[in-house]
Design goal:
160 residues; 7 helices; 0% strand; rod-shaped
Length: 160
């Protein structure tokens, strides 16, 4: 009985030592002569190089696609930010002073503002701030930190 247990453990030792995934060594003895064996080895190496090239091409294609998708996402984000800036600017010009609109506008201007293309937008923003200057000064005198930061951001872009 004890012999059977030892035989069992010898047969199933892979469960304990972890060599259950060992691969047999390649046998080149099936080839008839040295030339065919060398051809076989060369063909195997060429197949490996072909697989490696295919893997590199797929990796490169994925990198190009992610770059292109990132650029498209940035363009969409800028377009949406510019639309939202235009809407907020219209609201700021038409209504009484709304601090939240001005703060939101200052945060959005980081995404969608282009100094070369948006000079008219910036001028209308400056005009609307000038129109509401008394309300802005009152809020700033209270010590509203978010409005101070928003005005600083807007001034940064106005100076550009």
């Amino acid at each position: 009985m004890e012999l059977d247990i030892e035989l069992f453990f010898q047969m199933h030792s892979f469960l304990f030592v972890g060599n259950h995934k060992s691969h047999p060594a390649q046998d080149y003895s099936r080839t008839s002569n040295i030339n065919t064996r060398d051809d076989f080895i060369k063909r195997a190496e060429q197949d490996r190089e072909k697989r490696e090239l295919t893997r590199k091409q797929l990796y490169s294609a994925i990198k190009i696609q992610t770059f292109y998708r990132r650029i498209l996402a940035q363009k969409r984000l800028r377009r949406l930010a510019r639309e939202r800036i235009s809407n907020l600017l219209i609201q700021l010009q038409s209504s009484s002073f709304d601090e939240e609109n001005l703060v939101h506008l200052a945060n959005l201007i980081d995404f969608g503002f282009k100094p070369s293309a948006d000079a008219p937008l910036m001028m209308s923003l400056i005009e609307s701030c000038w129109k509401h200057r008394i309300a802005i000064m009152e809020k700033l005198s209270i010590g509203d930190l978010s409005l101070k930061i928003a005005i600083a951001k807007l001034l940064k872009y106005a100076v550009r």
